[in-house]
């Protein structure tokens, strides 16, 4: 049985370190802009004639320009930090997904019973990824179900149904329910599709083994 195992992406630097570097770069940029603006506003060749002798006016214009520069820099930093934290949170989430997929693939190679496989796979997805509820059905029969303790039904999103299929044959479905705080990610869903396909492949192998065993018993009798 050939299972698809994904390799983890190499970890990037700590988000805190990247944020510090971003802040230092922004501070350097703001300092340079202030120096440029001061040179501009205090140079007789660039300031309008009616401001040459008006030192308070120069000061006001210079400080207003510097303040505007700092405000814009702060807005840019805030947005960049938000995107950076979101990116690192997504990477950590996908890393958990990869670990759960590997754990389930290891289960597939060790477990020879459909009910045990489905039950333990549901447990792994709930425990590893924090889904509110995961259920596995084969041929219309519930083979495994696991959910987080506590919580109310209204705190969950609409269940996502992923077919458990192999070579175009649908054997059942994997039903995943998220809490209101969670959101679906396309790559995360793609990993769950792989899990469902691997479970289907394993179930097909179990069925083949059961038929061969039954045929041998019939021949012996």
Helices, strands, pairings?
Elements: H1 15-41, H2 55-110, H3 114-129, E1 133-138, E2 141-147, E3 160-166, E4 169-177, H4 186-220
Antiparallel strand pairs: 1-2, 1-4, 3-4
Helix pairs in contact: 1-2, 2-3, 2-4
- Which structural class should the secondary elements be placed in? alpha+beta
Distance between the termini: 31 Å
The description of the largest β-sheet is: 4 strands, antiparallel
User: Can you count the helices?
Assistant: 4
* H/E topology pattern: HHHEEEEH
Which residues form runs of ≥5 with pLDDT under 50? 1-13
How much helix, percentage-wise, in residues?
A: 55-70%
- What is the chains' assembly state? single chain
Major sheet: arrangement of strands: 2-1-4-3
Percentage of β-strand residues: 5-15%
Radius of gyration equals 30 Å
Number of DSSP strands? 4
**Averaging pLDDT over every residue, what do you get?**
77
Shape: rod-shaped
């Amino acid at each position: 049985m050939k299972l698809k195992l994904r390799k983890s992406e190499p970890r990037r630097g700590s988000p805190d370190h990247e944020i510090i570097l971003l802040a230092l770069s922004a501070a350097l940029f703001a300092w340079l802009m202030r120096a440029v603006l001061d040179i501009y506003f205090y140079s007789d060749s660039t300031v309008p004639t009616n401001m040459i002798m008006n030192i308070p006016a120069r000061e006001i214009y210079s400080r207003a320009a510097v303040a505007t520069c700092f405000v814009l820099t702060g807005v840019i930093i805030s947005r960049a930090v938000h995107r950076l934290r979101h990116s690192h949170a997504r990477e950590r989430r996908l890393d958990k997904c990869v670990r759960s997929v590997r754990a389930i693939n290891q289960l597939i190679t060790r477990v020879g019973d459909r009910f045990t496989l489905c039950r333990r796979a549901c447990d792994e997805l709930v425990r590893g990824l924090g889904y509110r509820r995961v259920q596995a059905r084969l041929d219309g029969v519930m083979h495994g179900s696991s959910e987080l303790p506590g919580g109310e039904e209204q705190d969950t999103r609409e269940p996502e149904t992923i077919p458990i299929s192999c070579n175009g044959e649908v054997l059942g479905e994997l039903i995943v329910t998220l809490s209101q705080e969670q959101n679906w990610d396309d790559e995360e869903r793609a990993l769950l599709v792989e899990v469902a396909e691997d479970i289907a492949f394993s179930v097909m192998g179990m069925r083949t083994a059961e038929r061969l065993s039954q045929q041998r018993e019939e021949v012996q009798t």
